[in-house]
Design a protein that fits this description.
The complex is a heterotrimer of chains A (about 290), B (about 350) and C (about 450). Chain A is mainly α and about 290 residues long. Chain A is built from 14 helices and no strands. Chain A has helices spanning about 5-35, 40-45, 55-65, 70-105, 105-120, 125-140, 150-175, 180-185, 190-200, 205-220, 225-230, 240-245, 255-275, 275-289. The relative contact order of chain B is 0.10. Classes of the chains: A mainly alpha (about 290), B mainly alpha (about 350), C alpha/beta (about 450).
């Protein structure tokens, strides 16, 4: 074919790709360089490296980390705890429920399955307000606080994430040959043993997908934790803390950007480590959802 | 299975009794208005007792059913309490004067009629539709072009894909503040404009769209790449041999062949654009003025999701906010169903 | 039998791990829970005993936390000083106050509504006078408390009695930089008419470069983050400027379905137009921030600032004398707005006795020392021996002593109105509202619309 034309068009495409990448990454670049400056330098020149120094970064981070409405380590800990607990329980309970739904062809399992699917179009806004009052009453009734507490919000994520988790898992479990389970039953396995010893290990790839999808959502979610936990509650997640921090009079960009840096850093590090899995997981989730 | 069934039976009964006992006791404490903090623990222990009792229940015939119930219970219970009950409560509340705590009167359709007399709400609906349409077109276009770029033969493809996808990792709130900084400090410097884009309603709306595309296009691009990669190589080769130009290949082979992917992406951008909240809140907080319907409105960039939130939480009008949310739900459901119908038909035709 | 014990132990551990999750809410009773759940698990038949044990732990806990009250503060700038105050309170009385701060862009009033929904009300919280209606019937009557004899600034409500504890007195008008005014040959005491203001602005503007000024007014009408400044404070001048402190003419008119006095509003609009004209149009006026506004004033880049005494709290902040000049948009206006803009109130279902005790202590000497000397607040109490360190204090006091002060009636407008009106100020600043007549027309339609909602 026309090799020469191809080379030139490859170069053009590469240049375009680089320009777009520069545009896409520019905001990240700005966050990083401006975290190294003080407020006046940012106002004077937000793009250049003038006045950037490591000691200023340390000072900015120090101020942000110790700020009473941000309290980074504590917030980060709660964010991580809530995300990990929710993901673990969603994976376990989701797989259990999906297996039961998938392996029982009864009217009930169909009703449950389609209710889950239908619920996926329910926007959060429509349940947001009654959710708070329901949780308040349930919390009072059972004697375990459901608002402003870790168990409460984990429970809520279990409910909201359940539909998509079950949907994706059912799709996968359908593809597992039933012979496997029959063989295990004949070997004397009880149903629960069949599930935990035979099925659950086979689900690893799809559970990774589900965990990535749910993880991205839960880690970045703002509205649910802001409604349930409040901005000054004992438990806070990172997005809520960033909002609370920026929301105070202090419109000092060096601190806000340092806070943003701290908030996005865990995600970026995770992405660099598990880039392939995350991108594949997101695609799979979208294609199946 | 290996435990003698008599021991198992006894154990099961014991657990059931203990569990029920604890459960009843904790509920009794509840009704006697005891403030004891161990109430929650008692309840959990009771539930655990019942679960174990059921699990050890000495029956072979119903064991499978019991396991099914136990396996379904946790997720289904959470789903009921967080989604289904609030959904029906919410629909019910929208016909009352609910203030977030209690319901005093049923008001029929008053909430639904009064929201349509609010010009600011009508504007929010209009703006949301505008936003959705703009984004559906723009995000898909940009993402598709990026996907074409990222499936062609250039160096560092992996890097570019990852780089374009990166913004999608960041939550809307943080992202909104980062862009607020960019619009008010950087863009004004770079283009030497007098005001930040956010200061003017029109450009502020544009700013929200820009941020949204920036955040979302990389993700949609990934899906298009997957779609493009499913086109068999020999089909493309055959068309090249037939002398089809790149444009012809694109419009006559690639696009028709990824029609299902286009459906998925349109659906995804549509629903997510409809629900846009975080960026709207952090970037403009709905501010801006607009002269429309013969009114001077001060919620120039406030989209539906934010309007609902502000009506209920900020203006303290829970019932009205809830009614708006129900309408939001209905719109979203209709649009989703319609969308799927239309694209299903298309796929069949192709 | 062994198996049975084993599985019961298993149940115990499961319950234990679940309650351990529950304990991670930040409360300290995990240990108690754990002990209790092991007990229940091992002696499930003898529940009575464990009840007793658990109840005694519970009782001990509740007495320990009886004195601890929560205070929701709406001023982030004094957060650290309030924490210091809480520490002192603990060392002096042994009682605990936990300070929680919300504020700035996130309004404490809005957050409180969410906290109420979540059944998480603090014992003491901050309200502005018009928010009393939101909490109707839910606030404790503080009448007869010791501190009420020492101040005339407490908040009295028709239905709930004396509800608000004034923790500070604040003033707002046009803050000026005395050095710049004297260099430009402007005497601030003459600024009591629109003409005098116009002349002064022209005089200062002419010497702008010489004096190193960016603009005459540090005035920012940005609506998203600073809506409270234009929509509440500056707007408040229309309601109160020139009126006696107890004169409610214009606020009554406003609250009667959102009416405005068009002639007065027109004069006010022309004055705001003058402020727009002599403001920093390139940077501050349309899309600036509070920090930039205050920093510019402190650096001497502006002659006037549209904030109040809270923007300069310590004498170290400024190298020049400051004072207040009235928003004289009509001839003869010579007052500033002064009084408590917000109050601390005690939640009726909270720990009212502990809150009352805290208020009495706050009015006392050691607390006033921190509030006045460290937090830079101006004391509302007659017997306070500390001269406020606030640089604006001298000017404030001269207005108050002469009786030339108006009330904070802007805090009585319908809650949330500022979120709407600030947009009109922003459009006027940007120029998309062309003149004073259009400003009056737009603001009156916005206000009417909001009151009709």
């Amino acid at each position: 074919m026309h090799t020469k034309e191809k080379t030139s068009s490859v170069v053009i495409r590469l240049i375009i790709a680089i320009i777009i990448a520069a545009y896409v990454l520019f905001p990240f670049f700005l966050v990083v360089i401006n975290s190294f400056k003080d407020s006046n330098e940012i106002t004077a020149n937000p793009i250049g490296l003038n006045g950037a120094s490591f000691s200023k970064l340390v000072r900015n981070l120090d101020e942000v980390i110790n700020n009473s409405s941000f309290t980074f380590w504590q917030t980060f800990g709660y964010s991580a705890l809530i995300t990990v607990l929710s993901l673990g329980l969603l994976a376990l309970f989701g797989a259990m429920a999906a297996w039961v739904i998938c392996r029982n062809k009864t009217v009930w399992s169909n009703v449950i399955y389609f209710t889950f699917i239908a619920s996926m179009i329910i926007p959060f806004q429509v349940v947001m307000l009654p959710l708070i009052s329901t949780f308040r009453d349930v919390g009072k009734f059972i004697g375990i606080p459901m608002l402003k507490s870790v168990p409460g919000i984990v429970f809520a994520y279990l409910g909201f994430g359940g539909a998509m988790t079950v949907f994706i898992l059912v799709g996968f479990i359908k593809g597992i040959p039933f012979d496997l389970e029959e063989a295990a039953s004949i070997d004397g396995c009880s149903p629960e043993q069949v599930f935990f010893k035979v099925i659950f290990p086979l689900l690893t790839p799809v559970i990774t997908t589900v965990t990535i999808l749910n993880g991205m959502w839960i880690w970045n979610d703002y509205l649910l934790p802001s409604m349930m936990l409040g901005q000054n509650g004992p438990v806070k997640t990172l997005p809520v803390a960033v909002q609370a921090f920026v929301g105070s009079y202090v419109k000092q960009w060096n601190l806000i950007l340092a806070a943003a840096l701290l908030a996005i850093l865990p995600m970026i590090i995770l992405f660099l480590i598990a880039q392939k899995q995350i991108m594949e997981g997101m695609i799979e989730g979208a294609v199946k959802g | 299975m290996k435990t003698p069934s008599s021991t198992k039976g006894a154990l099961s009964i014991l657990c059931l009794i203990a569990g029920l006992g604890l459960l009843i006791w904790s509920l009794a404490l509840d009704f006697t208005k005891s403030e004891a903090s161990f109430r929650g623990t008692t309840l959990i222990l009771g539930i655990v007792g019942i679960v174990l009792g059921l699990y050890f229940f000495p029956t072979l015939k119903h064991h499978r059913t019991i396991i099914n119930i136990l396996f379904l219970f946790p997720l289904l219970f959470a789903f009921l309490v967080t989604v289904i009950i609030p959904l029906f409560l919410g629909i019910g509340y929208s016909f009352t004067d609910w203030d977030g705590i209690r319901v005093r009167n049923s008001v029929g359709l008053t909430n639904y009629t009064s929201m349509f007399t609010q010009p600011s709400f009508l504007w929010s609906i209009f703006l949301t539709f505008l936003f959705v349409v703009c984004n559906m077109i723009m995000v898909n276009l940009v993402a598709f072009l990026l996907a074409l770029l990222c499936t062609s033969k250039i160096k560092g493809l992996g890097f570019f894909r990852a780089a374009y996808f990166l913004p999608n990792l960041i939550g809307g709130i943080v992202l909104g503040y980062i862009w607020q900084f960019i619009f008010s400090n950087v863009v004004t410097k770079l283009f030497n404009t007098q005001y930040s884009m956010i200061a003017d309603t029109g450009t502020a709306f544009l700013a929200v769209i820009i941020v949204y595309i920036w955040q979302y296009a990389g993700y949609i691009m990934l899906i298009y790449i997957t779609g493009l990669n499913t086109i068999p190589g020999d089909v493309l080769e055959a068309s090249a041999i037939d002398g089809a130009g790149p444009m012809q290949t694109l419009f006559e082979i690639k696009i028709p062949m990824i029609a299902p992917t286009i459906t998925i992406c349109t659906f995804l951008t549509l629903t997510s654009a409809f629900k846009q909240f975080d960026v709207n809140l952090a970037l403009t907080n709905g501010k801006g003025s607009v002269d429309i319907f013969g009114n001077y409105l001060t919620n120039g960039t406030e989209m539906l999701a934010l309007n609902i939130y502000n009506t209920a939480v900020i203006k303290n009008n829970y019932a009205l906010g809830q009614a708006k949310a129900v309408l939001f739900f209905i719109i979203l459901a209709c649009v989703s169903i319609l969308q799927v119908r239309i694209s299903n038909k298309k796929e069949v035709e192709l | 039998m062994k198996k049975k014990v084993l599985s019961i132990l298993l149940a115990g551990t499961m319950a234990l791990s679940m309650t351990a999750c529950g304990g991670s809410t930040g409360t300290t009773d995990t240990a108690a829970d754990t002990a209790e759940s092991t007990e229940t698990a091992t002696e499930s038949t003898e529940a009575a005993e464990s009840t007793e044990a658990a109840e005694s732990t519970e009782a001990a806990e509740s007495t320990a936390s009886a004195g601890a009250i929560r205070l929701l503060n709406g001023k982030p700038e004094i957060n650290d000083q309030l924490k210091e105050l809480a520490e002192l309170y603990k060392t002096e009385t042994g009682n605990e106050v936990v300070i929680e701060t919300i504020g700035g862009d996130t309004s404490a009033g809005d957050e409180l509504k969410k906290m109420y929904q979540a059944d998480n009300m603090p014992d003491i919280f901050v309200i502005e006078a018009n928010q009393a209606a939101t909490w109707d019937g839910m606030l404790a009557d503080l009448a007869g408390e010791e501190w009420t004899d020492k101040t005339g600034f407490e908040l009295v409500n028709d239905s709930m009695g004396t509800i608000g504890f004034p923790y500070t007195v604040e003033a707002t008008a046009l803050g000026y930089n005395a050095d710049i005014l004297s260099q430009a040959g402007v005497d601030p005491s003459t600024l009591t008419s629109p003409d005098a203001w116009k002349a002064a602005c022209e005089a200062i503007d002419a010497k702008k470069d010489e004096l190193g000024l960016t603009a005459v007014f540090a005035w920012c009408a940005e609506p998203t983050n600073l809506g409270w400044s234009s929509g509440t404070h500056v707007f408040g001048q229309y309601l109160d400027a020139g009126l006696k402190a107890d004169d409610t003419t214009y606020i009554d008119l406003l609250n009667d379905g959102g009416q405005i006095d068009e002639a007065r509003m027109k004069d006010f609009a022309e004055f705001v137009g003058m402020m727009n004209q002599y403001a920093d149009k390139d940077h501050l006026l349309v899309d600036g921030t509070y920090d930039e506004q205050v920093a510019g004033f402190k650096e001497g880049k502006f002659a006037f600032i549209t904030q109040g005494n809270w923007c300069v709290t310590s004498p170290d902040d400024v190298s020049f004398e400051v004072g207040f000049a009235p928003y004289a948009f009509e001839d003869g206006i010579n007052t500033i707005i002064a009084g408590p803009p917000s109050y601390w109130v005690a939640y009726k279902d909270g720990n009212v006795d502990a809150s009352k005790a805290f208020f009495n202590w706050c009015a006392g000497d050691s607390a006033q020392n921190i509030l006045v000397n460290k937090a830079g607040l101006v004391s509302p109490f007659d017997d306070c021996q500390y001269e406020a360190t606030n640089p604006f204090y001298k000017s404030m006091k001269s207005y108050i002593d002469a009786g030339n002060y108006s009330g904070w009636h802007t805090m009585l407008k319908k809650d949330g109105l500022q979120n709407e009106t600030c947009q009109v100020f922003a459009d006027y600043a940007k120029g998309s509202i062309a003149d004073a007549d259009e400003f009056v027309e737009k603001i009156s339609s916005v206000i009417k619309g909001y009151y009709a909602e």
